[in-house]
Amino acid sequence: VDAPVAGQRCGLIAIVGKPNVGKSTLLNALVGQKISITSRKAQTTRHRITGMHTVGATQFVFVDTPGFQTIHGNALNKSLNKTVVGAVADVDLILFVVEAGSFTPADARVLALLGKNIPTLLIANKLDNVHRRGDIAPWLQDMQAKHTFTEFVPMSAKNAKDVDRLLDICAKYLPEQSWWYAADELTDRSERFMASEMVREKLFRLTGDELPYTSTVIIDKFEEEPPAKKGQKRLLRIAASIVVERDGHKAMVIGDKGERIKRIGMETRVELEKLLDCKVFIEMWVKVRSGWADDEARVRSFGYE
Ligand code: GDP
Ligand code: K
Ligand code: MG
Question: 151: which DSSP letter?
Fold first, then answer.
């Protein structure tokens, strides 16, 4: 084991909570780049996603997790839950995220998974939605009775000052040890993975609630061409398939005269060009594979651990 580089701090911070409390929004805000996709739909996050933020002598390594699912017992959900339990096992700090002022049975089920020997901050997110701030103090007291939280952080993931304050709080819990990643690294996920995630985000955002969460995205082609001339950007040629369960869903994704799929492709391209600093050419397909979310072998073949 190498001796730690003098003064460096580094550690793992898990972000956990039920679906839709704002975990991925918080990760992106903490990292300062959109690396984890977000939407109004539960089950948007399906993978463990690591995001790094290095500032001064401190390297924060955040792990975003899928929200713990307790409703559907299908293969996809079982796989998502294992991802959550695995993510909290060996971390320096846990951010347990709830909506400020609320604690539901779904929150309680996630909390029950967390051991008491790891420092745990109660992140009372979406404070901007709380109109009666006076209600928060008694609620926090009530929350302390449920679990020994190390600290309470009422905040909004959409407020930059709150996010900076949370970073300062997190830093105190990280051990003195050498960094694990280069200072400019943002995520341990590949560009190919980021491409499939961005397509999935646009898909979820641009289709209504009629499209079930079970739709997924496969990257069929991911090729990189170096810049043709100095000063130009490299080009990524991507082909992506959106996999849905029924013909009706396929029509929904394609949209009237192909408008919707065109827009999904265009918004993905814009986002990826920004994130990966390149030019992107993307082709999109829609495929019907009935029952894939119930089929364990297929869930694995689509990349869910
Ligand atoms: P996750 O399922 O816990 O990862 O939640 P997401 O990050 O995908 O967010 C779910 C929804 O909550 C999205 O529509 C976000 O824009 C929204 N959201 C997240 N944080 C905040 C916040 O601080 N305030 C408000 N008003 N909305 C938020
Ligand atoms: K979500
Ligand atoms: Mg999420």
Answer: E
Question: What pLDDT is recorded for position 305?
Answer: 41
| Host domain of residue 156 | 9-171
Question: Is the CB of residue 247 less than 8 Å from the CB of residue 254?
Answer: no
**20 and 162 assigned to the same domain:** yes
Give me the CATH number covering residue 215: 3.30.300.20
pLDDT in tens, 205-232: 999 777 877 788 999 999 999 998 999 9
Q: Read off the CATH number of the domain in which 135 is found.
A: 3.40.50.300
User: Residue 182 falls within a domain, yes or no?
Assistant: no
Please give the number of the atom of ligand 1 that sits closest to the Cα of 45.
4
What is the distance between the alpha carbons of residues 206 and 203, in angstroms, rounded to a whole number? Answer: 5
CA–CA separation, 60 and 102 (whole Å): 28
Residues within 6 Å of ligand 1 by CB: 17, 19-25, 38-40, 44-45, 67, 125-126, 128-129, 156-158
pLDDT band at 43 (very low <50, low <70, confident <90, very high): confident
Question: Quick check: 71 pLDDT over 50?
Answer: no
